[in-house]
Design goal:
Isopropylmalate Dehydrogenase, 10-stranded mixed β-sheet, 43% helix, two-stranded antiparallel ribbon, homodimer, binds 3-isopropylmalic acid, globular, 345 residues
């Protein structure tokens, strides 16, 4: 299996190293031959090649069995010129990675980290399914200092495709899907809601479906996060709500993601950003990246056992109190990686 | 002074009655002659006139010194045909009510209501300034079951106008403004950020300005709400973030809003919705509506003293433990209204 690593910017390289370490360890333990190659994306690719998504990176990614991304962006590239994030968006499109899965789980023993009162946070275990290659992220843009615009558009096919992912996931969980939209204002949300309802009625009559407006959802997520199981949402709302939800579980540094494709092995990345303020200091929490590596084994390579091995090793470390500063621990990035790797073998 | 009351749907009429009661009481106490008229908007206007914003309502609103709105919407009008919310959007446009002020304050004694741990919630006192007549709410819409789209657009003038409101407000507070956008993805956000920076540099060099991406803001709001003072945001992001923030203060039923205009006296409404599930049961929290009435006195009629009288009476009731069920009390809507009115005289 060939795996492309895209370390990217800021703490990206540190967490990419973490992902590689657990993949190698779990691969060896389960007799999986894995081959890695590293490529530039984002700000470092702008610096080295003048392009946030160079052709060589694109080719390697579309040919790989799976792609792991660290993080992109930073103030260095905020001043003008090409943007690091354009590289990430181009990558998502190139891979057809339309289905972004963001599981949000409160780890036992980490309840004290949540900004929410323990009784509110307790039992949080949801899967956010975010549409990732449509909506306002990819519509026509008009740049300008006098007038600017962004077009948000969705087709029925795009909505159906992501809704199917959510409904299928719900079948392996509690058979409940909460679809988020702003149908009282947006035309795309009305298309979204109608499509989701029609698909449920036609193909998923066993799934309990409800609809929550995005503003109400931003409230309900913190009022009673444990009430949600599978949350289905379009691209921009998913961006906002998944970051919000990640905090409930204690730290965004813990949250992984998988972006699935119908044509490629998918893209795996922690949901945190490049955190330039702590880059290179051994402070980055590698857990989100390592959990993303586990998702890679599960979704791209079909290696459920190897995925569970990594997840179990991480849970063991967390319950042993081994963690970085953001989760109240005193370990460095490397120490956490070593502790997890030890528990894999 | 003429005040138009638009009770609307669901619990709207109950909370509009609360607003009227405190306005009459405070008006009498401060020697202010106030004249009220009531008009239909939203779902009840669809039922009575086939139009969520009838001409008679529009005329009364544009001629009034101020407009108070209860709430609009409900499942009854979800099935098709005109939408109640279209009436609210048309009203905002007709009044030119572009500047939506949403103060979020944790009332002393109500800390236990917040889903956040007390040490996180404590000290929350922010003003969200939301652009209300632009962005994706008002751009071209293409409806459809196969393809749909919504256009988000902003002009420099629109951004400047709302940023001025935020900077001016910050001068009366801590001189700090946090501007929220998604400048790493959206063209309108880049226009937004550039315009806000240019205006600060030109006219508000005394204001400390920073920029937070909307996804990060959704996290920071719950991680450390007390860190924020004035939060400046476009229409859709403001919708989501202000609902999220309102929960921090314990209940959305407590949160008021004022929507200011350059040409009219503005629109005043609690930020909660029509809550059809509890309508007509005397359970609606009237505090958000009564605090909105205070904002009406302050902003539309320049009656700071009368506004403070209402706010003081509400704070006294809350600290006496008088409140509706959503804030852990046992009082009915009417009992809360009476208790506040007693404390006004
Ligand atoms: C970096 C940015 C373009 C990206 C997004 O908005 O999708 C990030 O916030 C995320 O959620 O993966
Ligand atoms: C009812 C709806 C159209 C409205 C909005 O989205 O602006 C409401 O959510 C609000 O925040 O006032």
């Amino acid at each position: 299996h060939t795996i492309v690593l895209l370390p990217g910017d800021g703490i990206g390289p540190e967490v990419a190293q973490a992902a590689r370490a657990v993949l190698e360890k779990a691969g060896a333990a389960h007799g999986l031959p894995l081959e890695f190659s590293s490529h530039d994306i984002g700000g470092c690719a702008i610096d080295a090649h003048g392009d946030p998504f160079p052709d060589a990176t694109a080719e390697a990614c579309v040919e790989a069995d799976a792609v792991f991304l660290g993080a992109v962006g930073g103030p260095k590239w905020d001043a003008g010129g090409p943007r690091p994030e354009a590289g990430l968006l181009a990558l998502r499109r190139a891979l057809g990675a339309f289905a972004n899965l963001r599981p949000i789980t409160l780890f036992p023993g980490l309840e004290h980290l949540s900004p929410l009162k323990a009784e509110r946070a307790s039992g949080t275990d949801m899967l956010i399914v975010r549409e990732l290659t449509g909506g306002i992220y990819f519509g026509d843009k008009v740049e300008g200092d006098e007038n600017a615009s962004d077009l948000c558009s969705y087709s029925r096919q795009e909505v159906e495709r992501i809704a199917r992912i959510a409904f299928d996931a719900a079948r392996g969980r509690s058979r409940r899907v909460t679809s988020v939209d702003k149908a009282n204002v947006l035309a795309t949300s009305r298309l979204w809601r109608n499509t989701v309802i029609a698909l449920r009625d036609a193909d998923y009559p066993d799934i309990e479906l409800d609809h929550v407006l995005v503003d109400a959802m931003a409230m309900k997520l913190i009022e009673r996060p444990a009430a949600f199981d599978v949350v289905l949402t379009e691209n921009m709302f998913g961006d906002i709500l998944s970051d919000e939800a990640s905090v409930i579980a204690g730290s965004i540094g813990l949250a992984p993601s998988a972006s699935l494709s119908q044509t490629h092995g998918g893209l795996y990345e922690p949901i945190h950003g490049s955190a330039p303020d702590i880059a290179g200091q051994g402070k980055a929490n590698p857990v989100g990246a390592m959990l993303s590596a586990a998702m890679l084994l599960r979704h791209a390579l079909g290696q459920e056992d190897a995925a569970v091995t990594i997840e179990g090793a991480i849970a063991a470390c967390l319950s042993d109190g081994i963690g970085t500063g953001d989760i109240g621990g005193s370990a460095s990035t490397h120490e956490v990686i070593s502790a997890v790797c030890e528990r894999i073998s």
